[in-house]
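S.,

Sequence below, as promised.
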Amino acid sequence: MPTTRVLIAVKTYPTLSEKYDELVCTAGFLEDDTWIRIYPIPFRKLSYDKRYSKWQWIELDLVKNTSDFRKESFRPANIDNEIKIVGEIGTKNGWAKRKSIVLKHVRYNMAELIEEAKNPQIGTSLAVFKPQRIIDFVWEASTREWNKQKLDVVYANQAQHSLFDVEETKRIFKVAKKLPYEFSYKFISEDGKERKLMIEDWELGMLYWNCLAAANGNEQVACEKVKEKYFTEWCKKDIYFFLGTTKKFHNVGTNPFIIIGTFYPPKNPQLALTFKMD
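The prediction came back faster than expected:
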């Protein structure tokens, strides 16, 4: 496709790739309000003026990612090509402009969404989803270090393109720290079934590290603070999930979706007033 405008709605927490080093999966909306996934992008290696944020419009040249069968998946035509930031959508009037784009096609039934993902004629892999009820926000311990083999390849790749040897590169080039916990929402959808989906969101990862620093390294306190934001605070808002499938489990997982972002505009005060009057 030619130069394309994309409204960024999702940035996942960085992962390691033996082929592309440290990567972020980006997803957002085209000008016709349909979803698009952009992968790979070595986000942290972009110059600061090219590092885009959520709710910014960007322009870049994209081609279909032929190594990814998911219909929404595209990649930069050249990973070194320029990414232009050309606009931004704010939160005025209760997030009205964002809502006009995001809430065009909201899904409510998880079972139907999974069925669509598995159907090769449809193959849905990105969606805006409204849970009927959020039950809990939980976390489980995860591995604390990146896979050593992948990490060694990343450092070797970096050294190959610099003036330093591998050991010096390890000292200078710092990959994103691996999150030591997996965070998930427990919720019920329109189909009445309780589910638990993991969250892989840049925003959550940064919140955890900030909370950990504020808690002087106390991981339990940090996790509780993350829950306070994602559960106690945001569940009082009109919360939606941005869901995406993983390529690895799209066709084989019982539920191939994970939560790749959240959308939490304030509740409509007029609707709240109507509810109270009823």
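The chain has two domains: 3-89, 105-142+179-277.

Coffee later?
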